[in-house]
Please model this.
Amino acid sequence: MNTKYTALFQPILLRSGIQLDNRIAMAPMTTWSSNDDYTVSDEEIAYYSRRSNGVGMVITGCAYVTASGKAFQGGFGSDHDDFIPGLRRLASAIKEQGAKAVLQIFHGGRKCPPELVPNGDVVSASAVSGEPGTGSNPVPRALTETEIQSIIRDFGESTRRAIEAGFDGVELHGANGYLIHQFFSPYTNRREDQYGGSLEKRLSFPLAVVDEVKKVVAEHAKQPFIVGYRFSPEEPETPGITMSDTLALVDVLAKKELDYLHVSTLEFWSAPRRGVEDTRSRIEVIKERVGESVPVIGVGSISTADDALKAIQTGVSMIALGREIIIDPDWVEKVKLGKESEIETKIKKDAKSHLVVPAPLWKMIINRTGWFPIED
Ligand SMILES: Cc1cc2nc3c(=O)[nH]c(=O)nc-3n(C[C@H](O)[C@H](O)[C@H](O)COP(=O)(O)O)c2cc1C
Model:
């Protein structure tokens, strides 16, 4: 290895007691490729296995915690014990290749297509529609307090299943506009009960989920178990999450004894829109606020080994690779072996089998313009 990349290959000991071999994680990515009954498919097992040799930790695509939270056709579930055998195969496939296995768990809330949820009943913090990206979704129904408490317990139950399936941890998906994010956002949360109305109350649901998951881990895990939390730092809408909201979120999460915070951005170096007067990137502002209290993971368009080095030099504890590790499953191994100049940064149209990508994900990659760099 070129010694200048040593910082990427330092082991890191997380608060739970789990040590990761290096500072690079595979970012969570849905594959739309489960079996028809939403159990993990063989194609997915092969895809993850191919990408688990090299990174310190693999975070899986998001698994829904209850049927009303199913946001993706072919996005696997974790809402019943019948899912445990498939999840166990997934955890084992990742761990056999040397990475720690973390299951991302979520509820889609207002982003769930009506045809995927029971009775077409799309739910959220409040009955607010209109966010870009929700397509023709109907206006969601605001959850009752009893339903909210039930979903909090569902996050706990999915965590128990992750433990029983042999995962090393869970990541709570509080990012990208899904239900946890919807409760935190002043755009989607217009409630006036204990779950909304002020910044503090908008934090109630996310924090209750964290507490429930930590409680389940304390009760059920016989070995150290990772709990991470992913969030999106800002929203374009007004009202919407600003950097100042996010710093308040980070302050409370930093006290929750989590293993890491994962900042979801498409571009690691993206700058704050509003809420702080700062010319630095969002990730640098967040990292400074958190200090050493909890590791921070940054992600987004980190294509080359030099990009990764520059990112880790900001002081973040880890970086995650998403599209890059689909495009080149050997990304980490190549850097380790001093072959970083051989990293593929564009996807070849005939590389599906070679790259071990499930057919539904491959279709998305090829058909969705501007998402993946594709070689002519
Ligand atoms: C195919 C695909 C599926 C994704 N699915 C998820 C997901 O399930 N959960 C999540 O938090 N982010 C998801 N993301 C976002 C990625 O985790 C990541 O933040 C984003 O792709 C930016 O990183 P990159 O530039 O390294 O790809 C997905 C991204 C892609 C490309």
Observations:
- The longest strand covers residues 57-64.
- The two ends are 31 Å apart (CA to CA).
